[in-house]
Specification:
333 residues; 4-stranded antiparallel beta sheet; 2 domains
Protein backbone atom coordinates (compact mmCIF):
# COMPACT_ATOMS: atom_id res chain seq x y z
CA UNK A 1 0.00 0.00 0.00
CA UNK A 2 2.74 2.46 0.91
CA UNK A 3 4.62 1.74 -2.31
CA UNK A 4 1.48 2.24 -4.42
CA UNK A 5 0.75 5.58 -2.75
CA UNK A 6 4.33 6.70 -3.18
CA UNK A 7 4.19 5.87 -6.89
CA UNK A 8 0.89 7.73 -7.21
CA UNK A 9 2.36 10.80 -5.50
CA UNK A 10 5.43 10.85 -7.70
CA UNK A 11 3.50 10.28 -10.92
CA UNK A 12 0.64 12.76 -10.40
CA UNK A 13 2.05 15.32 -7.96
CA UNK A 14 5.82 15.09 -8.14
CA UNK A 15 5.87 14.41 -4.38
CA UNK A 16 8.17 12.18 -2.40
CA UNK A 17 7.68 12.27 1.35
CA UNK A 18 7.76 9.19 3.57
CA UNK A 19 6.53 11.19 6.58
CA UNK A 20 3.19 11.89 4.93
CA UNK A 21 2.89 8.21 4.02
CA UNK A 22 3.54 6.97 7.55
CA UNK A 23 1.03 4.36 8.74
CA UNK A 24 -1.13 4.56 5.60
CA UNK A 25 -0.69 0.88 5.01
CA UNK A 26 -2.66 0.26 8.21
CA UNK A 27 -5.66 2.39 7.23
CA UNK A 28 -8.88 0.93 8.61
CA UNK A 29 -12.03 0.68 6.49
CA UNK A 30 -13.82 3.14 8.77
CA UNK A 31 -11.85 6.34 8.29
CA UNK A 32 -14.19 8.47 10.42
CA UNK A 33 -15.89 7.19 13.58
CA UNK A 34 -18.05 9.50 15.70
CA UNK A 35 -20.06 8.34 18.71
CA UNK A 36 -22.20 10.53 20.99
CA UNK A 37 -20.26 13.70 20.09
CA UNK A 38 -21.22 16.83 21.99
CA UNK A 39 -19.91 20.37 21.81
CA UNK A 40 -21.26 23.62 23.22
CA UNK A 41 -20.32 27.28 23.33
CA UNK A 42 -21.38 28.31 26.81
CA UNK A 43 -25.10 27.64 27.01
CA UNK A 44 -25.41 27.11 23.26
CA UNK A 45 -25.40 23.39 22.39
CA UNK A 46 -23.96 23.31 18.87
CA UNK A 47 -23.63 19.51 18.61
CA UNK A 48 -25.85 17.23 20.67
CA UNK A 49 -24.84 13.58 20.84
CA UNK A 50 -24.38 12.78 17.14
CA UNK A 51 -23.04 9.42 15.91
CA UNK A 52 -21.99 8.28 12.43
CA UNK A 53 -19.22 6.54 10.49
CA UNK A 54 -17.68 7.15 7.07
CA UNK A 55 -15.78 4.50 5.15
CA UNK A 56 -12.70 4.64 2.97
CA UNK A 57 -13.54 5.79 -0.56
CA UNK A 58 -16.98 7.18 0.42
CA UNK A 59 -18.42 10.66 -0.12
CA UNK A 60 -20.66 11.74 2.76
CA UNK A 61 -22.77 14.83 2.21
CA UNK A 62 -23.27 16.63 5.53
CA UNK A 63 -26.32 18.83 5.08
CA UNK A 64 -28.17 21.32 7.19
CA UNK A 65 -29.26 24.95 7.43
CA UNK A 66 -26.98 27.68 8.73
CA UNK A 67 -26.32 27.24 12.44
CA UNK A 68 -27.18 23.54 12.39
CA UNK A 69 -23.78 22.40 13.71
CA UNK A 70 -21.98 21.54 10.47
CA UNK A 71 -18.95 23.80 10.96
CA UNK A 72 -18.49 22.84 14.61
CA UNK A 73 -18.55 19.15 13.67
CA UNK A 74 -15.88 19.68 11.00
CA UNK A 75 -13.68 21.64 13.42
CA UNK A 76 -13.82 18.75 15.88
CA UNK A 77 -13.10 16.16 13.18
CA UNK A 78 -10.08 18.11 11.95
CA UNK A 79 -8.63 18.71 15.41
CA UNK A 80 -9.37 22.42 15.62
CA UNK A 81 -11.76 21.92 18.55
CA UNK A 82 -11.60 19.20 21.22
CA UNK A 83 -14.71 17.03 21.65
CA UNK A 84 -16.29 17.91 25.00
CA UNK A 85 -18.10 14.58 25.17
CA UNK A 86 -18.18 11.44 23.08
CA UNK A 87 -15.70 9.59 20.92
CA UNK A 88 -14.05 10.79 17.70
CA UNK A 89 -11.63 8.53 15.86
CA UNK A 90 -9.93 9.30 12.55
CA UNK A 91 -8.07 6.38 10.90
CA UNK A 92 -8.91 4.40 14.05
CA UNK A 93 -7.06 6.86 16.33
CA UNK A 94 -8.45 9.27 18.91
CA UNK A 95 -8.31 12.78 17.42
CA UNK A 96 -7.34 14.43 20.73
CA UNK A 97 -4.24 12.26 21.21
CA UNK A 98 -3.06 12.06 17.59
CA UNK A 99 -3.93 15.48 16.20
CA UNK A 100 -0.69 16.24 14.35
CA UNK A 101 -0.40 12.80 12.75
CA UNK A 102 -4.03 12.93 11.64
CA UNK A 103 -3.75 16.48 10.29
CA UNK A 104 -0.79 15.37 8.14
CA UNK A 105 -3.13 12.97 6.34
CA UNK A 106 -6.17 15.18 5.75
CA UNK A 107 -6.97 18.05 3.41
CA UNK A 108 -9.27 20.89 4.45
CA UNK A 109 -10.98 23.51 2.31
CA UNK A 110 -13.29 25.95 4.05
CA UNK A 111 -15.85 28.10 2.25
CA UNK A 112 -13.70 31.22 2.74
CA UNK A 113 -10.53 30.99 0.67
CA UNK A 114 -7.34 30.72 2.71
CA UNK A 115 -4.68 31.82 0.24
CA UNK A 116 -1.88 34.39 0.18
CA UNK A 117 -3.09 36.79 -2.48
CA UNK A 118 0.20 38.67 -2.90
CA UNK A 119 1.88 35.39 -3.85
CA UNK A 120 1.51 33.47 -7.10
CA UNK A 121 -0.35 30.17 -7.38
CA UNK A 122 2.97 28.35 -7.67
CA UNK A 123 4.34 30.08 -4.57
CA UNK A 124 1.18 29.28 -2.58
CA UNK A 125 1.37 25.56 -3.30
CA UNK A 126 5.10 25.38 -2.62
CA UNK A 127 4.58 27.18 0.69
CA UNK A 128 1.90 24.74 1.85
CA UNK A 129 3.99 21.80 0.66
CA UNK A 130 6.81 23.00 2.93
CA UNK A 131 4.38 23.15 5.86
CA UNK A 132 3.70 19.45 5.30
CA UNK A 133 7.42 18.74 5.07
CA UNK A 134 7.08 17.60 1.47
CA UNK A 135 10.26 17.65 -0.57
CA UNK A 136 10.71 17.42 -4.34
CA UNK A 137 7.26 18.94 -4.78
CA UNK A 138 6.07 19.81 -8.28
CA UNK A 139 3.12 22.25 -8.18
CA UNK A 140 2.55 22.26 -11.94
CA UNK A 141 0.87 18.86 -12.04
CA UNK A 142 -1.68 19.99 -9.48
CA UNK A 143 -2.26 23.32 -11.21
CA UNK A 144 -2.85 21.51 -14.48
CA UNK A 145 -5.31 19.20 -12.79
CA UNK A 146 -7.41 22.15 -11.55
CA UNK A 147 -7.14 23.78 -14.98
CA UNK A 148 -4.89 26.67 -13.93
CA UNK A 149 -2.12 25.79 -16.35
CA UNK A 150 -0.54 28.97 -17.71
CA UNK A 151 -1.62 30.97 -14.63
CA UNK A 152 1.04 29.56 -12.30
CA UNK A 153 3.01 32.79 -11.99
CA UNK A 154 0.01 35.13 -11.72
CA UNK A 155 -0.64 36.64 -8.31
CA UNK A 156 -3.73 35.20 -6.65
CA UNK A 157 -5.22 38.68 -6.19
CA UNK A 158 -5.78 38.77 -9.96
CA UNK A 159 -7.78 35.51 -9.92
CA UNK A 160 -11.55 35.30 -10.27
CA UNK A 161 -13.59 33.61 -7.52
CA UNK A 162 -13.74 30.40 -9.51
CA UNK A 163 -9.98 30.37 -10.09
CA UNK A 164 -9.34 30.97 -6.38
CA UNK A 165 -11.63 28.09 -5.45
CA UNK A 166 -9.84 25.79 -7.89
CA UNK A 167 -6.51 26.84 -6.37
CA UNK A 168 -7.98 26.09 -2.93
CA UNK A 169 -8.80 22.59 -4.17
CA UNK A 170 -5.21 22.21 -5.40
CA UNK A 171 -3.94 23.38 -2.01
CA UNK A 172 -6.19 20.81 -0.31
CA UNK A 173 -4.57 18.05 -2.39
CA UNK A 174 -0.94 19.05 -1.74
CA UNK A 175 -0.34 16.20 0.73
CA UNK A 176 -2.44 13.63 -1.19
CA UNK A 177 -4.89 13.41 1.72
CA UNK A 178 -6.71 10.27 2.79
CA UNK A 179 -9.70 12.40 3.88
CA UNK A 180 -10.90 15.62 2.27
CA UNK A 181 -13.03 17.99 4.35
CA UNK A 182 -14.75 20.32 1.88
CA UNK A 183 -17.04 23.16 2.93
CA UNK A 184 -19.39 24.38 0.16
CA UNK A 185 -16.70 23.80 -2.52
CA UNK A 186 -18.88 24.82 -5.50
CA UNK A 187 -21.13 27.50 -3.99
CA UNK A 188 -21.41 30.62 -6.15
CA UNK A 189 -19.01 29.35 -8.81
CA UNK A 190 -19.35 29.57 -12.56
CA UNK A 191 -20.41 26.31 -14.25
CA UNK A 192 -16.92 25.52 -15.56
CA UNK A 193 -15.21 25.94 -12.17
CA UNK A 194 -17.98 24.04 -10.37
CA UNK A 195 -17.77 21.12 -12.78
CA UNK A 196 -13.97 21.02 -12.47
CA UNK A 197 -14.23 20.71 -8.70
CA UNK A 198 -16.94 18.05 -8.93
CA UNK A 199 -14.74 16.04 -11.29
CA UNK A 200 -11.79 16.22 -8.90
CA UNK A 201 -13.95 15.16 -5.94
CA UNK A 202 -15.10 12.07 -7.83
CA UNK A 203 -11.52 11.33 -8.94
CA UNK A 204 -10.36 11.49 -5.32
CA UNK A 205 -13.05 9.02 -4.31
CA UNK A 206 -11.86 6.69 -7.06
CA UNK A 207 -8.33 7.02 -5.68
CA UNK A 208 -9.69 5.73 -2.37
CA UNK A 209 -9.94 8.98 -0.42
CA UNK A 210 -12.86 9.69 1.89
CA UNK A 211 -14.71 12.97 1.22
CA UNK A 212 -16.65 14.78 3.95
CA UNK A 213 -18.73 17.35 2.07
CA UNK A 214 -20.60 20.01 4.05
CA UNK A 215 -23.28 21.92 2.21
CA UNK A 216 -26.80 23.31 2.51
CA UNK A 217 -27.54 22.51 -1.15
CA UNK A 218 -29.37 19.21 -1.46
CA UNK A 219 -29.02 19.23 -5.24
CA UNK A 220 -25.23 19.37 -4.97
CA UNK A 221 -25.16 16.62 -2.36
CA UNK A 222 -27.42 14.48 -4.52
CA UNK A 223 -24.97 14.78 -7.42
CA UNK A 224 -21.88 13.78 -5.45
CA UNK A 225 -22.69 11.87 -2.30
CA UNK A 226 -22.85 8.14 -1.68
CA UNK A 227 -24.77 8.93 1.52
CA UNK A 228 -26.10 12.12 3.06
CA UNK A 229 -26.55 13.04 6.72
CA UNK A 230 -29.01 15.77 7.74
CA UNK A 231 -28.14 17.78 10.83
CA UNK A 232 -30.45 20.33 12.43
CA UNK A 233 -30.13 22.06 15.80
CA UNK A 234 -27.09 19.93 16.58
CA UNK A 235 -28.77 16.57 16.01
CA UNK A 236 -28.67 14.21 13.04
CA UNK A 237 -32.21 13.76 11.77
CA UNK A 238 -31.40 11.11 9.15
CA UNK A 239 -28.50 9.46 7.35
CA UNK A 240 -28.89 7.29 4.25
CA UNK A 241 -28.37 7.24 0.50
CA UNK A 242 -29.98 10.10 -1.45
CA UNK A 243 -32.26 7.61 -3.20
CA UNK A 244 -33.53 6.07 0.02
CA UNK A 245 -34.15 9.46 1.64
CA UNK A 246 -36.11 10.70 -1.36
CA UNK A 247 -38.16 7.50 -1.33
CA UNK A 248 -38.88 7.83 2.40
CA UNK A 249 -39.57 11.56 2.66
CA UNK A 250 -40.55 12.72 -0.80
CA UNK A 251 -42.83 12.07 -3.73
CA UNK A 252 -41.99 12.06 -7.41
CA UNK A 253 -44.11 14.50 -9.37
CA UNK A 254 -44.46 16.54 -12.51
CA UNK A 255 -44.89 20.29 -12.14
CA UNK A 256 -46.92 21.54 -15.10
CA UNK A 257 -47.89 25.03 -16.27
CA UNK A 258 -50.94 25.19 -18.54
CA UNK A 259 -52.15 28.23 -20.48
CA UNK A 260 -55.91 28.60 -20.22
CA UNK A 261 -58.17 30.04 -22.94
CA UNK A 262 -58.56 33.31 -21.00
CA UNK A 263 -54.77 33.77 -21.01
CA UNK A 264 -54.19 32.85 -17.37
CA UNK A 265 -51.45 30.44 -16.37
CA UNK A 266 -52.53 27.50 -14.23
CA UNK A 267 -50.05 25.42 -12.24
CA UNK A 268 -50.68 21.72 -11.64
CA UNK A 269 -48.79 19.02 -9.77
CA UNK A 270 -49.20 15.45 -10.95
CA UNK A 271 -47.94 12.79 -8.54
CA UNK A 272 -46.24 9.97 -10.41
CA UNK A 273 -46.45 6.27 -9.71
CA UNK A 274 -50.17 6.40 -8.98
CA UNK A 275 -52.81 4.59 -11.00
CA UNK A 276 -53.71 6.58 -14.11
CA UNK A 277 -50.82 9.07 -13.87
CA UNK A 278 -49.33 8.06 -17.24
CA UNK A 279 -52.72 8.42 -18.95
CA UNK A 280 -53.17 11.86 -17.37
CA UNK A 281 -49.81 13.01 -18.70
CA UNK A 282 -50.77 11.81 -22.18
CA UNK A 283 -54.13 13.60 -21.93
CA UNK A 284 -52.52 16.89 -20.89
CA UNK A 285 -50.03 16.71 -23.75
CA UNK A 286 -52.80 16.10 -26.28
CA UNK A 287 -55.63 18.25 -24.93
CA UNK A 288 -54.05 21.06 -22.91
CA UNK A 289 -51.85 24.01 -23.85
CA UNK A 290 -48.75 22.91 -21.90
CA UNK A 291 -46.25 25.72 -21.42
CA UNK A 292 -43.69 24.04 -19.13
CA UNK A 293 -43.29 20.64 -17.53
CA UNK A 294 -40.50 19.31 -15.33
CA UNK A 295 -39.95 16.39 -12.99
CA UNK A 296 -39.16 16.95 -9.32
CA UNK A 297 -39.11 15.49 -5.84
CA UNK A 298 -41.35 17.21 -3.30
CA UNK A 299 -40.59 16.55 0.37
CA UNK A 300 -43.36 15.99 2.87
CA UNK A 301 -44.53 18.87 5.04
CA UNK A 302 -42.43 17.93 8.07
CA UNK A 303 -39.18 17.81 6.09
CA UNK A 304 -40.04 20.91 4.10
CA UNK A 305 -40.42 22.85 7.35
CA UNK A 306 -37.27 21.31 8.83
CA UNK A 307 -35.17 22.23 5.80
CA UNK A 308 -36.80 25.52 4.82
CA UNK A 309 -33.34 27.10 4.68
CA UNK A 310 -32.01 24.38 2.37
CA UNK A 311 -32.65 23.73 -1.28
CA UNK A 312 -35.71 21.47 -1.07
CA UNK A 313 -36.51 20.83 -4.69
CA UNK A 314 -34.27 18.32 -6.46
CA UNK A 315 -34.63 18.26 -10.22
CA UNK A 316 -34.10 14.68 -11.26
CA UNK A 317 -34.15 12.64 -14.41
CA UNK A 318 -37.16 10.37 -14.26
CA UNK A 319 -36.98 9.37 -17.89
CA UNK A 320 -40.76 9.71 -18.11
CA UNK A 321 -41.93 10.00 -21.71
CA UNK A 322 -38.36 11.00 -22.56
CA UNK A 323 -38.89 14.29 -20.70
CA UNK A 324 -36.01 13.74 -18.26
CA UNK A 325 -35.47 16.76 -16.03
CA UNK A 326 -35.51 19.52 -18.61
CA UNK A 327 -38.22 22.16 -19.05
CA UNK A 328 -40.57 21.33 -21.93
CA UNK A 329 -42.09 24.13 -23.98
CA UNK A 330 -44.76 23.26 -26.43
CA UNK A 331 -47.58 25.10 -28.12
CA UNK A 332 -50.33 22.92 -29.51
CA UNK A 333 -51.53 23.69 -33.02
Amino acid sequence: MRRVLAEFNQKHYGIFNTDVLEDRGNMSTKTIHVKDLEYHYGATHAVQGISFEVTEGEILGFLGPNGAGKTTTVKVLTGLLPPLKGEVKIFGKEITHNTKKIQARIGVSFEKTNLYEQMTAEENLKFFARLFGIRRFNPFSLLKRVELEGKEKDKVETYSKGMKQRLMMARTLVNTPDILFLDEPTEGLDPVSAETIRRIILEERERGATVFLTTHDMHEADKLSDRVAFINKGKIAAIDTPHNLKQAHGEYALNVEILEEDGTLQKKKLTLGQEGSAEEVKRMMEKEHVVTMHSAVHFDAGWAELWKNCVLLLIIDLGLLALGSFALRRKLA
